[in-house]
Amino acid sequence: MEKNQLMRMEDLLDNPTPRIPICLCLDTSSSMLRIVGGETVNTGRTVFQDGKEWNIVEGGITALNELQDGVNHFYEAIADDEVARYGAEICVVTFDSSAKTLVDYSTIDIQPDPPKLKADGTTSMGEGVNLALDLLEERKNEYREAGVDYYQPWLVLMTDGEPNGAESELRRAINRTNELINNRKLTIFPIGIGPEADMDVLSKFSPKRAPLRLKGMNFKEFFEWLSQSVSTVSDSMPGETIKLDVDGIKSWGEI
Question: Where would I find the VWFA domain in this sequence (predicted)?
Fold first, then answer.
């Protein structure tokens, strides 16, 4: 058993606080390297990646930079919350040409540092969601074995494009997600980044709530809202119905 996995199991025994499993399933395809702010210098070179031709520039702030800042802010906010830091378990999955586990489900005390995001390749969205759901099922089994209660899991799905991985994986991911949501075993937050995010595909993952498009690059505002929502859940009892701060969504999202 890996050292980190052993620590996660021991944490369930030492800290029986009900858990809030939260998976950030993030698009890290090469399109996330597009410049969204700051000064740039055009090199005159181009590259074909993620199905498009891109101009190569130097300098500037990328969409990935903004996403990284938002994830960092989320970790800081959870760490500063005396209740959420012991109950929130964060998992980070990224998808580009393949799906990767950057952080498996663990509390801030076990994994205090946010992962470093890197962008490259295409958009294997179905593979990313399936990996996220596989990790969730494994962690839920560990909760049951340790006798630790848990809240309805959250899946945050963020993308700036359209999926171009295996069609079979995408269909399987959509079906699995819908089944969990309809059985009240999962809450999903599908978020489109930028004007080219495929909102139609995101809506297929979310039968009960329309996907939202991020306003500009308001990642920090989104993750601030998410951390506050986690804090609200942490103060409730597992199974209790929680109303999300709908007004707060207006600061970062739009339909």
Answer: 21-233
